[in-house]
Amino acid sequence: MVNLNTELLARTAPLYERVKRVIPPFEWATFAEDVDAIIDLKRRRSAVVLAHNYQTPEIFHGVADIVGDSLLLAREATKVDADIIVLAGVHFMAETAKLLNPAKTVLIPDLEAGCSLADSITAQDVRLMRARYPDAPIVTYVNTSAAVKAESDICCTSGNALKVVESLGAERVIMLPDEYLAQNIAKQTGTKIITWKGHCEVHELFSADDVRQLREDHPGITILAHPECPPEVVAEADFAGSTAAMSNFVETKRPPRVVLLTECSMSDNVAAQHPDVEFVRPCNLCPHMKRITLKNIRHALETNHHEVTIDPAIAGRARRAVERMLAL
Ligand code: 13P
Ligand code: SF4
């Protein structure tokens, strides 16, 4: 009799091929059943999984249909023709997918998958900023709730923030809520930027000393940083860009040795595709991103938990801010 486990491993072998450099075989054996079940559920339920670059490799390379940074996930969400979207990422990403697909079912496998930036500001805070600086348009980072987006003029991501700010042609703009992203963008534009005190709990931990230490410990290393890192970190890095821009940098430049100053899983996902590049991995985990697992993706597809809903009183205005960004 054929061992069921052997059949399962044979069926998922092409997927394992993609992650074999970052997941040992004994660990894959614990993932294979859920991967297989999720693939089957997606087919039966007309569902797709959109996964952010910070998802773990078994999700990113194993069950995701679309992977990318926040900008790509928002863009691709407008093109999905499946009935159900499972967002393997954090809550604001699922809300953005729902804003762009009001008629579809959008699921997030864990409702507690939040974001320190989204938590740093409320709709009332944005209204107060508008009252204080009535002449300044408000650019809101996508890492915010739909209620906050609804109070803003336009959204941005780390991938298009400079373009969004410059598109407004204003003398000064308010950029919320990531202080470091705003400061990093302010260095690249003549527009005056009014900031907020929000920080990403993952990227704020990197310091300029870390960068110097990395150069000392790993001669010749190329250092890539996410623009949510403090400006002094970005200043010491060789390149700063969104998660997609960092991935693209490795893909096109093939540095022999690289470090990504960002969330941990990102290095695993990129390393899985580039055996010729040596990755140094001092990284920080995002506890929110790590709430998403194969088990809860499977559960989401089996039970429709948790369906993302947005108050109709704010959905229209929030959608307008996201669509205005996508139209650029
Ligand atoms: P990206 O838009 O660069 O993928 O960043 C999203 C995020 O949450 C970074 O911490
Ligand atoms: Fe939010 Fe930072 Fe986590 Fe990204 S890495 S989801 S910005 S807490």
Q: Please compute the radius of gyration using only Cα atoms.
A: 20 Å
The major sheet is characterized as:
4 strands, parallel
Distance between the termini: 59 Å
Helix content: 40-55%
Q: SS-based structural class?
A: alpha/beta
Ligand names: 1,3-dihydroxyacetonephosphate, iron/sulfur cluster
Strand order of the largest sheet: 2-1-3-4
In the CATH hierarchy, what is the class of the largest domain? Alpha Beta
Number of discrete helical segments: 15
What are the low-pLDDT stretches, counting only 5+ consecutive residues below 50?
Answer: none
Q: Mean pLDDT, as a whole number?
A: 96
Number of strands: 12
Fourth-tier CATH superfamily name of the largest domain:
NadA-like
Shape: globular
CATH architecture of the largest domain: 3-Layer(aba) Sandwich
Keywords:
Rossmann fold, single chain, binds iron/sulfur cluster, 328 residues, four-stranded parallel beta sheet, alpha/beta, 3 domains
